[in-house]
Design brief:
Number of helices: 7
Distance between the termini: 54 Å
Number of strands: 8
Number of domains: 2
Shape: elongated
Order of helices and strands: EEEEEHHHHEEEHHH
Strand order of the largest sheet: 1-2-3-5-4
Strand content: 15-25%
Length: 249
Amino acid sequence: MTDKLHHTKGIVLRTVKYGETSIIVSIYTELFGIQSYLVNGVRSSLKKAGGKASMFQPAAILDMVVYHNENKNLQRIKEYKWQLLYQQIFSDIPRHAVTQFMVELMTKCLKQPEPNSDLFHFCEDALLCLDTCSDAVMANFALYFALNFATFFGFRIDDRYSGRNHFLDLQEGSFVSENPGHPYFLEGEEARVSSELLKVMHPGELRDIKLNHSFRRVLLHAYENYYALHLPDFGTLKTLPVLKAILGS
């Protein structure tokens, strides 16, 4: 099967150096899902190559023309350019920390090269919103993204919170009326706020959910456990300690 050219958007997830001047970059593409690309010459010291490697920063959204062959694990990019230039994601420290958390979550969950346009557009829209939203929205954005991202992998929390069902069983992914009898649950205000976050239809609504830093850190840790309970080999999020520290500063 010969390589065919395709036009697709992609979200950069991870970049590693390859040889003297090249990189291998993991990109979540609109057309093909997660893919690895070899990009030559972007780390050259020559002036004509200057700045190209910076286009492959994690979270960058690229407009690309790519060669694709289903029988190959490593593809190539013919043309690439910014789909857009972020206003704040790469320059604002708290926003960048949230972005790194989102990218790591995507990297851990997106394993198979399967296209999912709804998931791609959710991730793209989330990054665009984070870039321009208010600080009040940004402060709750990681919580919102973590809860809604799970939807695409089949383990969204079933929001049946009520005065009776006031325990959030993270193992079962649902609100229940009794203590689950294992350590993976939330109760009280933590369960109620989780229900409130699940009801958010647009990120702009996050401004109305007032939380303090320590409360956000508790929820972030709980949601990390939630993913670890439902995805094999999920492990821990390396970006979470940084995010917790910055949200608490």
